[in-house]
Predict the structure.
Amino acid sequence: MTKQSKSLPDAGRRNEASRKAILTAAFDLVGEVGFAKLSIEAIAARAGVGKQTIYRWWPSKGTVLFDAFLMLSEDHASGDPALPDTGDIEADLKTVLRATVDELNDARYDEPLRALNTEIVHDPELAAAYAERLHEPMRRIKRDRLRRAQEAGQLDADTDLDLAVELLWSPLLNRWLQRTGPLTAEYADRVVEAALHGLRPRTEAASHTRTGQAAGKPSRG
Amino acid sequence: MTKQSKSLPDAGRRNEASRKAILTAAFDLVGEVGFAKLSIEAIAARAGVGKQTIYRWWPSKGTVLFDAFLMLSEDHASGDPALPDTGDIEADLKTVLRATVDELNDARYDEPLRALNTEIVHDPELAAAYAERLHEPMRRIKRDRLRRAQEAGQLDADTDLDLAVELLWSPLLNRWLQRTGPLTAEYADRVVEAALHGLRPRTEAASHTRTGQAAGKPSRG
Amino acid sequence: MTKQSKSLPDAGRRNEASRKAILTAAFDLVGEVGFAKLSIEAIAARAGVGKQTIYRWWPSKGTVLFDAFLMLSEDHASGDPALPDTGDIEADLKTVLRATVDELNDARYDEPLRALNTEIVHDPELAAAYAERLHEPMRRIKRDRLRRAQEAGQLDADTDLDLAVELLWSPLLNRWLQRTGPLTAEYADRVVEAALHGLRPRTEAASHTRTGQAAGKPSRG
Amino acid sequence: MTKQSKSLPDAGRRNEASRKAILTAAFDLVGEVGFAKLSIEAIAARAGVGKQTIYRWWPSKGTVLFDAFLMLSEDHASGDPALPDTGDIEADLKTVLRATVDELNDARYDEPLRALNTEIVHDPELAAAYAERLHEPMRRIKRDRLRRAQEAGQLDADTDLDLAVELLWSPLLNRWLQRTGPLTAEYADRVVEAALHGLRPRTEAASHTRTGQAAGKPSRG
DNA sequence: TTCTAACCGAGACGGTACGTCTCGTCTTAAT
DNA sequence: ATTAAGACGAGACGTACCGTCTCGGTTAGAA
C-alpha cells in the first residue's frame, strides 16, 4: 500500500512523480469536497494521471488518503520525535494536549483527518496499517514521556502507560469526532487534571467507607 | 427527520407501514453491506417501496439510519432508564462498562453502530440530532449515577460530571472505533480504576511538587 | 429493438424526444467518425441523454444504428412504394440501378451504410431484423416490377424472381463494399444487360458443342 | 504491411518466429472472439510477444489479420492455380461455385473471413492491398477459365469477363455476408444457370419490343 | 358520497462515478 | 538494436445509484 524510497518490490517501474501528484491531489480534494464526494476520477484528473495508475497501486480511496497522510507525516516528522519535558508532567501534558486541540481545530486538517478516521472505522486492514505506521509511532512518543514521569515518581508505578495515553487523549478525539462539546484549551487542561488526579476525592477520608465500605482497594499506592 | 406518535406536521397522510419497512430494511442492509455500499435504491427495493417515498421524508441515507436507530432504541428503552446502584460506584461502573463492551462487540450492532458514528463525524446536523435524541439521554443517565456517587462522597465534589463521563467512556469508544487494541472486560475494569484513582501516586500528595529523587532522571529540571 | 407509433409494450413510459435525439445523433456521428470509433458515450453526449437511456432500449450500437436507418426510411418511404414501369424492363432496371449507384456514391450515406452492412455481417440477430424490416420490403418492390415484366413475357417464366433480384443488385453492392472497381452508371447498365441476356451466346448454334465460331449476339436490340 | 521471403527493408533484424506467432495468434483469436473483440493485447499475450513488436510492424489489427490470411493462402496456394476445365463451362462453374459455397460455410473460416471482409469495407488502403494480393490472383484464375470458354464459343464474345466473374460470384458472397438466404449447392447451380442463360426468354428475340402477348414462355432453348 | 389532493409503487430520465479494459506510447533489462 | 514485459495517460465500456420527474392507482379528509 505504501512505497519506500527504494528496494520495495513495487518500486520496480513505478513513476514517482505520478505517485506524489496523486497523493497531493487526494489530500487537497478531500479538504475541498469531503471524503464522501471524493472520487478516483477527480483525483486522477487533478493529478493529470490515468485512473488505472491509481487502481494499479491502491485498492481503495481510503488507502490513497492514508498514503497521503503518510507522505505528509514523513515530510515534517524529520524534526523532533519527542514531547516536551520540563520535569512537570502535568504542565507538559497540558501543553501537548492544547497543541492537539489546536491541530484538531485547524480547518486545513479537519476534513482530511475526519476522512482518515472514519475510513479506519470501516476498514480493519487500513486500521492495522494506520495503527502501525501512524498511530503507534505517536503513541510511543507519548508513552516515553509518561515513562519518564513514572520513573520520576510523578505517575503511579503500576499504571499501564498505554491505558494512560488513552485516558488522556480519547476524550479529546471523541469530542472532536462526535462534536459532543466544545474542544478548547480549558477542556484539555481539565482532562489532564482529571486523568492525573482521578475522579475520587484525594482526601484520605475513607470516602468509600461510608456507603459501601467494601470493595475498598486501600492497598494501592 | 423523525416521526412522533401523533400531531406532527408530517404525520398527516403518512403510511406508517412503509416507514417501518424502510427503517427495518435500512438497518438490516447496513449490517449486510456496510454503510458505504448502502443505497437508497436497495432500501426501497428491500422495503417494497418507491424511492420517492424515501426522498419525500428523509434528506439523506444518514438520517434514515438515524431514525432506524431511534426506532430501535425506543423499542427497548421502555424499560429501566437508570444505571445500577449498589452503593459502590467502582463496582457499578465496572458492571456498566463491561456491558458497554459487550454491546460494542455484538456482531449484530457492530456495522450499524459504526455507520451511525461515522455519519455523525461528517454531518454536523445529524450530529446535533444524535446528541439530542440518543447521546444526551444516555449521558444524563450516566451523570445521574455519578451524581449520586458524588453526593455519597465517592467522587470528588469538584469534578465536572460530563467530563467524568467522557473520561470513562471515551477510551472504550475509541478502541472500538479505531481498533487500536482489544476491547475486553478487563480493559473496562482498568479504565474504571484508572479514571477513579488517577494516574498519579496517591500516597504523597506532594509528589508533583518535588522531582526525581527516585530512579534517576537527574538531568531534567 | 424498434418502436412503433403506439401500443408496443416498450412504448409504455418511453420518452420519444430522447429516442429521436439518440437516433439522429447516432446517424450523424457514424458519418463523422465511422462506426469503429462511434461510441455510446458520444451518442449520449450529442443527444443530451444519459447513457443508461441508450442501454435501456438497445442492446448494442449496431441496433441503434439500425433503428436510425429505420427512422430515416420511414420518413421518406411514405411516398412511392413502386419501381418505375415504362413497359421496358431493361430500360427501367437501368434507371433503378443507376439510382442505386448514385445512392451508394452519396457521401452522406456512405459511412452509415457501410456501418450498417458490416454490423449485419457479424450479428445474425441484427441481420434478421435488417432482412425483415429493411431488405425484404425493398426486395418485394423489386420483385413486383420483375413479376410484371415476367407476366409481360419480358422475363423467362421459370426464373426465380428472388434470384433475379440478387443477380442484378449483388454486383453493385459487392463493388461498393469491397471497392473492387469503379461504381458507375455504365457499370449498372452492363450489369443489367448481362443479367438479362446471359453470358452465353444467344445463337441457337449448339454453342457448347463446338468452339469459338460464334461471337454472335445479333438479336440484342 | 507485409513481409516477403527476403530483401524487403523491414526484413532487417526482424524476428521471424515472433511474426509467425503473431499471425497465428491473430487468426485463431478472431475465430474465437470475433473481430470486434479482438485486441492487440490479446494477440500479444497469446503470441508471447510484447505489444510493441506488433505496433512496430503493423499499423492496425486489420493489417495483422490480412497478413495472417496471406500467410495462410501462401501455405496452401502452392498447388494448382487453375479451375477445372472439362470443356463444359456450365458444369465446371457449378463445381467451382459449389466449392465456394462449401468454403464459405466452413465454420473454421467463417469468422476470420467475415472479419477480413468487413475491415476491407472500412479501410480503403487495406482494400487495395486485399485487391492486389488476394482478390486479384483469384479473379485472374476465374477469368482464365472463362476466357477459355469464350474462345470455345461457350460464352458471348463481347462479354466483359470481369463483369462475368462478378455476376457469378457476387450473389454468393452477398448471401453469405448478409445472410439474406440459405447458401446451398442448389443455389450455386441456379446462379450459374441464370447468369449463363440470362433472365430473358431465349425464344423470341423481339419479346421486349412488344408486350404481354405471351405469358407462355414454353421452353427455354 | 363524491370530489380532490396527497401519498403510494413503479420506474424512466439526465447524470456522475464506478472499476475494468484496451488503446498506442514510452521505459527498462536482458539478450 | 530488438525483444518481452509492462507502466503510463487516455478514454470508452457497461453497471450502479443518484435525485428528479412523471405515471396510474389508492386513500383520506373536505365538500
